[in-house]
Amino acid sequence: MVNIDGKQIKLQIWDTAGQESFRSITRSYYRGAAGALLVYDITSRRETFNHLTSWLEDARQHSSSNMVIMLIGNKSDLESRRDVKREEGEAFAREHGLIFMETSAKTACNVEEAFINTAKEIYRKIQQGLFDVHNEANGIKIGPQQCISTSVGTSTSQRNSSEIGSNSGCC
Questions:
Q1: What are the alphabetically sorted keywords of the record (predicted)?
Q2: Is 56 in contact with 68 (CB distance < 8 Å)?
Q3: Reported pTM
Q4: What is the helix, strand, coil percentage profile of the chain, to 5?
Q5: What per-residue confidence (pLDDT) applies to 146?
């Protein structure tokens, strides 16, 4: 549960592992998603960054056009082993209209912020009327006390994709 503008928001997290063997299952998660976190490893696993275009295409093809997507460069605690420059991540995010930040799952640096910032952007889109909160296919459900339930997915540094979707109650 997080508080955004005085509202209690329940985040439901789905971790899809970003592995090719789970790709068909991953696609089904996008259908009920309000957002996604695409995570790549900034260190020696550059292929996770190189595969972002494919994962982003999947997310956009199988989701609402209003889905919020955040790009996460993980393992920021391993600066000495960096293989993907921060500027590369920022450029990819800018080019594709994504929110960007770097995190460290090991030290928890910016991890909570990644989820909260994604939820804030979803909430902003709800306020703008871009999400129909009465259509659960958008990944959002109004709980019994009129709070918003939104699911949030994450993936570890060796994973590329996660979703934000909703199919549970709130409060």
A1: GTP-binding, Nucleotide-binding
A2: no
A3: 0.78
A4: 35, 25, 35
A5: 53
